[in-house]
TrEMBL record:
<feature type="coiled-coil region">
    <location>
        <begin position="140"/>
        <end position="184"/>
    </location>
</feature>
<dbReference type="InterPro" id="IPR018490">
    <property type="entry name" value="cNMP-bd_dom_sf"/>
</dbReference>
<keyword id="KW-0175">Coiled coil</keyword>
<dbReference type="Pfam" id="PF07228">
    <property type="entry name" value="SpoIIE"/>
</dbReference>
<dbReference type="InterPro" id="IPR000595">
    <property type="entry name" value="cNMP-bd_dom"/>
</dbReference>
<dbReference type="InterPro" id="IPR018488">
    <property type="entry name" value="cNMP-bd_CS"/>
</dbReference>
<protein>
    <recommendedName>
        <fullName>Cyclic nucleotide-binding domain-containing protein</fullName>
    </recommendedName>
</protein>
<dbReference type="InterPro" id="IPR052016">
    <property type="entry name" value="Bact_Sigma-Reg"/>
</dbReference>
<feature type="domain" description="Cyclic nucleotide-binding">
    <location>
        <begin position="17"/>
        <end position="138"/>
    </location>
</feature>
<dbReference type="InterPro" id="IPR036457">
    <property type="entry name" value="PPM-type-like_dom_sf"/>
</dbReference>
<dbReference type="Pfam" id="PF00027">
    <property type="entry name" value="cNMP_binding"/>
</dbReference>
<dbReference type="InterPro" id="IPR014710">
    <property type="entry name" value="RmlC-like_jellyroll"/>
</dbReference>
<dbReference type="InterPro" id="IPR001932">
    <property type="entry name" value="PPM-type_phosphatase-like_dom"/>
</dbReference>
<dbReference type="GO" id="GO:0016791">
    <property type="term" value="F:phosphatase activity"/>
</dbReference>
<keyword id="KW-0378">Hydrolase</keyword>
Length: 348
């Protein structure tokens, strides 16, 4: 804070509050009031303080702030040259500051004490009317600003409400989908063999872990009397619910063929024909499907685009057969299949 030299009375006369007062009064104010300079950021007073003076801005600007230093801090306005701040504490019966005031730009101000103000009004009562007009204008501007702020906040609340509704609907949809996927997973697991046959001379084991809750993987073991088993391992292109539904269709059609098809190749070709008739787009299924005879330890199978069976002897040596072309089901009319019979070594 720096105190300036005596101010020119003409400068005081440019302040709207003092417009129309005699030159002698301007001379008196210039002689009795000391103009002071404040640097940017200087806090002149804080909301709730007791006030006994107000400021008239001669140069620079001063910010009016509500709830200073709190999360609700809000800039009410900026007072510039010719305007005044802090007058409300002189007019209010409790004498408390209604807002905080901080220097925005380097400011030159006149400081009026309560005694200075009372004396001025006693000499020139019409200043009360001038001040009331200025305060009325400020009140209207403050009301309009508050209304605009309220409208903006209402729009924000309306937008937030719409977004909340959308998020809630999305959450419900996700929870519903998750529940349906859990049910679908349970149904798909029930489509697999719950127990594997126990037959002399053979030990069976199986495990399937879908990449997602549900998928297009499938296996089955169906006894044919005491000596033979139908073994199926299949996979549908893609993941998730579409693959699971397609696999459900393919497995049902293949099981229907198992009862009367004379050979594994005939069953797989019949399945391919039925999938083609349904025009399932680019989806397809790969499969190894065959009959294992315990008495001869042979597996007669057909392979359609699936990885070939792996055969190991009792020592773990690879005895797997060679492969020929085997195309996936559901894509080609003139289907190429890998048809073979492989022997499983004792203990293999």
């Amino acid at each position: 804070m720096n105190t300036l030299r005596r101010i020119d009375p003409a400068i005081i006369g440019l302040v709207p509050l003092f417009a129309g007062i005699p030159a002698t009064e301007l001379e008196h104010l210039a002689a009795t009031l000391e103009p002071t300079t404040f640097e940017p950021g200087t806090l002149l007073f804080r909301e709730g303080d007791t006030g006994d003076h107000f400021y008239v801005v001669l140069a620079g600007s001063i910010a009016i702030i509500k709830a200073l230093g709190t999360p609700d801090e809000r800039l009410v306005g900026v007072r510039g040259v010719g305007e005044f701040v802090g007058e409300m504490s002189l007019l209010n019966t409790d004498g408390l500051r209604t807002a905080s005031v901080r220097v925005y730009e380097r400011a030159d101000v006149l400081i009026f004490s309560r005694a200075d103000f009372d004396n001025l009004l006693s000499r020139h009562p019409h200043l009360v009317y001038t001040m009331l007009k200025i305060l009325s204008t400020r009140l209207r501007e403050s009301h309009e600003a508050a209304l605009h702020d309220l409208q903006a906040k209402n729009q924000q609340l309306a937008k937030a409400y719409v977004e909340l509704q959308a998020a809630q609907a999305q959450l419900i949809e996700q929870e519903t989908l998750a529940h349906e996927l859990r049910l679908a997973h349970g149904i798909q697991m029930q489509m697999l063999p719950q127990t594997l046959p126990e037959l002399p001379g053979a030990e069976l084991g199986a495990c399937m872990l879908p990449a997602r809750s549900v998928g297009g993987d499938f296996y089955d073991v169906v006894p044919l009397g005491d000596d033979r088993l139908i073994l199926t391992v299949a996979d549908v292109s893609g993941k998730g619910m579409p693959a699971a539904l397609y696999m459900g269709l393919a497995s049902s059609l293949l099981n229907a063929q198992a009862a009367h098809a004379p050979t594994p190749e005939a069953a797989v070709r019949a399945l391919n024909d039925q999938l083609l008739r349904r025009e399932m787009g680019s989806m397809f299924v790969t499969v190894v499907y065959g009959v294992f005879e315990l008495s001869t330890r042979t597996f007669s199978y057909v392979r359609a685009g699936h990885p070939a069976p792996v055969v190991l002897d009792a020592q773990g040596n690879d005895c797997s057969p060679g492969v020929t072309t085997g195309q996936p089901l559901g894509l080609f009319d003139d289907l190429l299949l890998d048809v073979q019979t492989v022997s499983v070594p004792p203990g293999g």
